[in-house]
Structures are given as structure tokens and as C-alpha cells.
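Can't attach files on this board, so I'm pasting raw text. These are the components:
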Amino acid sequence: MSAVPASSPPYWLRDNCPCADCRDPRNGQKLFQITDLPEELSVSASTELNGRLEVLWNDGHRSSYPLDLLTTEEHARTGDRRTEADKRLWQAADFTADQAPEQLPEARWADYLGDPAERAAVLRAVQRLGFAVLREVPTADRQVLAVAASFGYVRATNYGELFDVRVEPDPNNLAFTSAAIAPHTDNPYRDPVPTLQLLHCLANDAVGGDSGLVDGFRAAALLREQAPEDFAVLTRTLVPFAFRDRDTELRADRPLIEVDPLGRIREVRMNNRSIGRLVLPTAELTAFYAAYRRFAALTQRPELQLSFRLGPGDCLIFDNTRLLHARTAFEQDGRRHLQGCYADLDSLASTLAVLERRATALDELAALFAGEGAAEYLGEAVTQAEHMLQAAALAERAGAPDHLVAAALLHDVGHFHGVVTGRQLMLGEDNRHSDTGADWLARWFGPAVTEPIRLHVAAKRYLCTVEPAYRAQLSEASEYTLKVQGGPMTAERAAAFAELPGAADAVAVRRWDDQAKDPDTATPSFDHFRPLLECLLAL
Amino acid sequence: MSAVPASSPPYWLRDNCPCADCRDPRNGQKLFQITDLPEELSVSASTELNGRLEVLWNDGHRSSYPLDLLTTEEHARTGDRRTEADKRLWQAADFTADQAPEQLPEARWADYLGDPAERAAVLRAVQRLGFAVLREVPTADRQVLAVAASFGYVRATNYGELFDVRVEPDPNNLAFTSAAIAPHTDNPYRDPVPTLQLLHCLANDAVGGDSGLVDGFRAAALLREQAPEDFAVLTRTLVPFAFRDRDTELRADRPLIEVDPLGRIREVRMNNRSIGRLVLPTAELTAFYAAYRRFAALTQRPELQLSFRLGPGDCLIFDNTRLLHARTAFEQDGRRHLQGCYADLDSLASTLAVLERRATALDELAALFAGEGAAEYLGEAVTQAEHMLQAAALAERAGAPDHLVAAALLHDVGHFHGVVTGRQLMLGEDNRHSDTGADWLARWFGPAVTEPIRLHVAAKRYLCTVEPAYRAQLSEASEYTLKVQGGPMTAERAAAFAELPGAADAVAVRRWDDQAKDPDTATPSFDHFRPLLECLLAL
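---
Top answer:
C-alpha cells for the assembled complex are below.
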């Protein structure tokens, strides 16, 4: 009987084969074409073994799937998060009311730069709420480009790589006057539209000139609720957006509200200034204008508009496919100067995903130190966690390079991650924890970190051979495990070990390892080493 | 009775009011919000007058529409040209068969740079066929960025501002190996996807490594023809495209075939390498894989694939939302080195539209010289066209700046464009052709060109006052029209004229004007002056 669930069509299952012939292990890219698969693909045999589904195919290929690859949960977590389904829709009171459920998403520039968690929080806010504000960004010319580069790539347009928003003598765009501007999205005449906008305030002592943000997804959702037929009209009517000056003639025919094939709101364009002449049958024109006027009125409802004032050093980042931005009129005698640029959501999401995967890795390590590591003694006077933290502290005090501090910190994680645990080692069965640990860590760290760990047990056996005094100072437990691990090396093996490229690093780690068993010394916390690990992560 | 056609709903008509209060004359951007219009907008009175529809609105506003604004023809011409409706779909034989209807769209880099018509032809090919090849592009490092900058903006990605396509020791992408690559689009895991790709060949003496292009719109149209239900499945199934390496984690959920709200194909994504795991009900998975396999097989049909070899100096530009590109395997011992970058279709279309509007203006002028201008003598021994060409040649020979050569060339166009023509001038009615001509040309040229034209009749009256010898050498016809135009200036008016900022330029144009009536001199063609006019166009 086949172990393949009936819910797994053969081509789907085979297309997801994770073997190294089918997928590049470095980036998960597939190495075959869907057309390479045989016409009548089928499963010849399958079985479940050790939490994996093993499949033999009728073309002879073998696949081995972790069972969780056949479930649906991961999908929800890793969608592209671009539709209303993955957003928190809001109105002004969600930030401003007493006991408002949301805080204004903001962070100091220095914290954003220095703390990956803070950086992730800002980017997550842009993804979830559509905006965030960075404070205390240096009010330097072109600084807005550095903000964009911190998570993605600047998208140049006809307005330049960056644009200055201030009163201009002969403006080619309303933005460069002092007039009020109703809530709108930018560049609807571009396709692809710039999906992110940044506005960095360099000066604002004019009277007026406040900023407003409106959640366009929320406004569209309200329209769908109140007038579903109007909503439908706006999703299916192609609106000719246009912009023209001496060197530019842009045109994009796109709906005001774009939905994905599942009907979910995924993009809003709203900018009366650049809507050109629609050419449609009369009944459709009438229906469009009724729907458009209703939607425009919704976007201008005061309760939807979050108003605030950008001060010098503030940099607003917002989703130009979702949020409408507005500005009140201002007095021309004051100085008001913003610099803006465009960027894209995909790179922001990528940067966030990388930060999150790194945070997940570090959280997993932190949990090890706080959980199993803190409970386990393995015959010494300190816990495993204390032991590893002390080893890292010794390495740090010795001025060791970061990768050796990390190796010292993580050298014994194999005790918790092999099939054979540290406890079993203490009962006389070698758990080969140096290999297990190095292999487990290789998901996250490069060989500079993992190889000294792989060799740190061999280094003990080596040192016992070449330095009789070394063996004399081993702890009782270490002397016991030495025997389980094979005892001192022969002279030939020791000579061969010394020739290995990582031998010196492994010996260094070994010496910190041996000294890191002092119940009376102050032990730094795992968090102390977290930034160092963060920099070494290679995932 | 109202002159407003029943096919013009009030809000549509008012939204398209072309008056200067409603629209910024510089860029056509609207200056009001749709919500600024009254709740019960209606036409109080309307009338047709001189080819315009004059409307009085119930809120007191007045609009005046050129009647052609109420027709539908312009729309088809100026759509955004992004769907199959505005493309020429092709297969390989369309370029390669005997008497093939299409030629490979190609141009020498020097011609592309030097000749606006050639540049427009290349960009139009990318828009219409999906690709073009530039030849003899200098094989310099980073030159591909200059090609992109010639029509738009580079889109940076995780592969950099540009990427080198050659064998790499530890590639993070199949492109950087020597393996064959089946037809695919790039970066489907980006949203917005880069809509254009450029590939510039610096070296290719490897065996193999040929390039192939497939029209993905054509393949999709074939699928719709042969298996409409499969086509529908691919337009509605969200495919999770993904890419991941150390610093990147991109994800986009988009259909393989994207259609616009009218059902027209507007984007194709095809890249088996980066399709992640779909999570859907079994029946949908089965239907998707059947449709996907059929579509993939279509894109790999030999008759669809146009194959060619990029040699050093060739730069291929292609539409990454439509064309699939492929490469045969190659021997690693040869040298093969391409540099690529991404850019976007919207800026390419804008550059093309500006080139086209400039070409249209120059074509209109050229037609004037070839048509009415060549037929009209107005009392001289040369035609109007010869007269103006001679004036320009005199200006050019005198080393005049470009704007004065242009003014000399165009000084009499007012004879053809006023309500009162040059013929009527010769019958004794001043046609004020200097004003008419300057106003007509102001659509296209700045004041440096138009103002000497505006003053060139006044300059004649001025010179007759201050230089008795000048009047003596006037032609008979010119002496006749002097009277119709008001005769010599009074001394006061002449003094005032001399103070005008453009007086010296107008006098210079006037002198060339007076000398440009020689039936025996060789006259350059209008095309001789076309590049000069091109540079002066301000539209």
C-alpha cells in the first residue's frame, strides 16, 4: 500500500523533490524543467520512515520528503504578504484614541541601524500597517538615499534618483508648490508603479504643511462593504493615468483598485490629477464616475486620515500601493524642505525575511542556553550553558577573533543535538558531539566557526599526547570522557592532526574549554554574544 | 436644445475640462479633486461654435472643448500598449522564413545614438515585438548601463546594478554555470518584476552558448486556443515564486499568465527553477500541473524559438514580462562573458513617446515645406519653401546660433497658419503672419526661436526708418507688403523697438529674410536642418 497521501498529485510531489539532483542546496532553485518529467509519472513504491516519506518513482528516481513538506501550514506563513489578507487595516483612531490598539510605528535611526530587532520591527510595520517613521535621521542632503539603501534599492524616475519637495519657481508638479494636496498615491502613470516612497524632512518651520496618511486598503474595503457594485466597477475599469512634460510622456491603464485572482485587494491607485480621458460606453462612464466619486469621498473622510507633522530628521517610509498621502497647504514664507525617493516592497520584504530567519536562529540558540543547557551539568560544577559562556568569555578576554569566540561559545551544542546525547556520553557511549554540533551549526555558520568545534575533541586527545602536563590538569569528568572518546592519540596521529588547517584554532578552543568550569566566576549572558553571532550568521 | 452629446455623462465631461483653472497647462495635471465637483452637477447651457463645444455648468463654471476631445479615436492610439492587443505576436519563422514578414529588429549603436528615427525604431521594436538587438556597442565594462540609461533607468536587484553572466566558481544561480537553460523569464520572485532585461555580450568564443527567444504572449495565446480551460487555470492560480540565498529571501505569489480586467494577456512568468511548493486542494493541484506542463511544453516548441548567437558588441534588449529567453549549454574552456542589467518598460515607452511626438512635429513642418510651401510664391522668384531654406542657409553660413538658424528657417510659417493667409496679404490685407507663426510654433519651440519670428515684420519697418539704404534694396513684393503692414516706423517707435530684448535677433533674421530670394542659388533640403530643429524642440 502506498504511503503517499491521496492529496499529493504525482507531478506536484515530484516537482517538490528536495534531493540535491533536483534542487540546488545553496538556494533551493530547481535543477530540472517540468517538461523533463515523464508523460505518465507515477509512484512505484513509497514508505514512511523516521518522519520522512520515501518514494520510488516509475522512472527510477528516488525522493525523500520530510513529512512537514506535505502539510499546508508553512504556506500561510511565507506568502508574499501583499494583499489585504496579510495587512492590518486601520483608521486614524487606531493610533490616536485613548487606549488605541496600535502605536505609531517609529524608531530612532541609531537604534534602527544598531539593533536588528528594531530594524525588523520598522520593516514589519511598513509591511503590516503600510508605514513607519524613523526619527533623528541626520538632516543631511541625500540622506534619504541611505535610508532606502538600508533595506533595498532606490528606484529612479523622471523626478530623479531623489526629489526635493519644496516650493519651486516653475513647478512641473503640484508637489513643488505650497498648495494643499488631497490623499493620493504617487506615480500611478508608471507601470510598474514605485511600490514604496520615502520622505525625509530636512526643514519644516512653515505654517501648515502637515502630513496625512490614509489606508487605501481600508477605504477600498469600506467601499466593498457599502457599495459592492461600485467596488466591482473600480476593479474592472482601466483608468488611463498620464503624465507629460518636456522629456516625459508616461501612460498606464490600470484599475483604481486591483484585486488578485482570489479577489483580495492588492493595490490601490488614486490620483485625480493624472487621470486622463476615459473612453467607454456611456453607461460604463456613468457607473465609473459614480463609483470613483464615492471611493474618493471615502478616502477623504476625516476619520480615516492619520495626521501628523514631519519635523527635521523624520523620515516617513510608506507603501505606495496601499497608503494615500496628503499634505495641508502651507505659508510660502516659512521654510519647508523634504527630500524623497522611491524604492520597492519586494526588497524590503526580503531584508525583513532575512532578519527574521537570523533572529529565529539566534532565538533557537538562546533557548538552548536558557533551557536544556542551563539544566545539564555533565559531571562538572557548572551547567553546560555556564561552561560554554565561560569558554566564550575566556576567548573574548584573550582577544580571539569573533569566529573563535563563537566556536568557544557553541562548542558543546552537539550534546543536545545528536541522536546520542551528552548524558549517554557520561554513561560511557561516545556521542561524537563535536561532529554532531558542527554539522548542526553548519546550517547557520561557516567553517571558520564549525571546524574548530568539529576538532575540539580531537584537540584534547592531541594535547594529551604532546603535553603531559595538559592531561594532568583535566577535570575528573573530562578524564573520564577522554577514555570514551578513544584516549590520547598515537604519535603518528598527533603529528597528522597538527598538520590539519584548523588544528591551531581547535587547540585554542580546547584550552578555553578546559578552563571554563569555574563555579565562582561571573558568567556573561548569551545576549552579550548575540551581536557577534549575528554578524557571523551565514544563512 | 443642448449641444452636449447624450454620450457625455456630466462628471466625465467636467473631469475633462481643458481650461487653465482645471488643468495645469504645463503638464496636463488636473488642479481639482473629483470630490470638489457639486453633488448634482449638470449642464445649464451648451453650444457648438468654431469647432468647439462651449458649456455653462450649473455651478457657474464654463468649459470649452475641442470637439475631437469628445471622440474615441485618440484612445486607441495612446493606450499603454502593455497587453497582447498592442503587440505583434510572433514565432521564429516570422523572422527566418523566406520572405519572412519581419526583419530582425537591429541597429548599430552609433546610428541609434545619432538618429532619433533609428532610436525610435529600436524602442518601438521592443514595445511591439518584445526585443531588439544593438550592434557594435563598445565592449567596455559596464557599458550595458549606458545602454539602459539611453532610454530609462537601471533597476538594481540583489544581483547588483549589473550582473556578469559567465562561469563562476560557486554560483548562486544557474545563469552563472555553463549548463543549458530552458526558456524562462527572470526574477519572477520579484514584485514588481523587472520589466526589461539587457544582455550585452563582451566575449563569446565558447562552443555553444547560443541565445534563444520565445514570445511568451504567443505561447499563452496558443494555450488559450488549444486548451482554454488550462489557460484559465493559469490566469487564476497564484504560484509561489521564491529565491533565497545568504542575504536574500524573495517571494512573489503571482499567476503564470496575468490578464488585465478585459481578459487580455499582459504578463507572463515562467521559471520552473523558482516555483515553490503550491498548497491547494488536490483537484486544483492536479489541474494546475496539467495546465502548467502543457504551457511549458508550448514554450519549448522549436518553431516558437528564435535562435541566434550574441557576438561581442551585441546588446539584446527584451521585455521580461513577455519574452522567455534561453541559452544552449557551452564548453567551459571557451570564454563567454555577458553583462546584464534590468530596467523598466514604462520609461522606455515614455522615451519612445517623446521621440514620436518630436518626430510628429518635425514631420508636420517637413510636410509644410514639401506641400503648401513648395507651391506658394507670394510674388517672389522663389517658392516660400525655397525662401525659408535660403534664409536658414544664410544664417548658418553666417555662423548664427542654432535658435536663429531655426528662426530664419521658420520665419514665414505664419503665412500658412493664420485665419488670413499669405495670399490675402498679397491682396492687401495684413495677415499678421509674424504673430500667427510665432504663436503656432510656441507649441514646439521656446521664445529664443519664436520671438525673433514674432518681431521680423516689425524689424523690416524699423530698418526702413533707421537705414534708408535698406529700404532701397527691398524686393518689389516686399515693398508692397511694407505698406500693408503699416509702413516705416516713426522715429519714436523705432527707438522703442531697438530697446526690445529680441530686437537684434529679429533684425538679423530680417536681413537673411531679405537676401533669401535668389532663384539661382543652391538650396539645402529641410532634412538638412532637421537635427538642429530636433535639438531645439521644447515639447
